[in-house]
Hints:
single chain; mainly alpha
Amino acid sequence: MSVNQITVRGFDAELSTSLRRLAKREGISLNQAALRLLRRGAGLAEGPGRADTVGASFDQLIGSWSQAEADEMDAALREFETIDEAAWR
């Protein structure tokens, strides 16, 4: 555990409200919420993987679809596998 400390002054009402909402929503302290926001703003990972990795926003979907849902998506995307030759003339 790190013992580094920093004092941050000048929180405006909007930032203070956002920080408090995050802390309440996540059930964490204001300090933990501030650290989370600082890490995000600095582009640092909060846990496994990095939030700024291309495609990371889809990570929560991996393994979450049923086979029927995956089949439905594949069927919907098949249309995009065909090239309309007339459109390229």
